[in-house]
Amino acid sequence: MSVTVYSTPTCPFCKQTKVYLNEHDIEFIDIDVMANKEKAKEMIHKSGQMGVPVIDVDGEMVIGFDQKKLAELLKIK
Fold first, then answer.
1. Domain interval for residue 61
2. How many other β-carbons are positioned within 10 Å of the β-carbon of residue 52?
């Protein structure tokens, strides 16, 4: 399973998302879209969103810290 979190260092919902993933031992790639403009463009292209976090779970986009949707996609009980 591939999980990518597009985030910024100052975003509280990004931090919540990463804490949630870590609590459930979900490995993920964290991309700081503030520091990486190419990845920011990639995130916007994939999701149609400019706000963070955007979480890519095997090609399925989750916008914002949507715990219910993440649990469903990642099979977290």
1. 3-74
2. 25
Nearest to 43 by CA among 5, 16, 1: 5
User: How far apart are the C-alpha atoms of 76 and 67, rounded to whole Å?
Assistant: 10
List CB contacts of 37: < 8 A, sequence separation 6 or more. none
Q: What is the pLDDT of residues 5-36, one digit of tens each?
A: 999 999 999 999 999 999 999 999 999 999 99
User: Chain-centre distance of CA 49, in angstroms?
Assistant: 12
The encoded tokens of residue 55 equal 């979480």
Provide the residue type at 20 as one letter: Y
| Tokens, residue 27 | 């490995």
Q: CATH number for the domain including 37?
A: 3.40.30.10
Tokens of 76: 């977290």
- Number of structural domains the chain divides into: 1
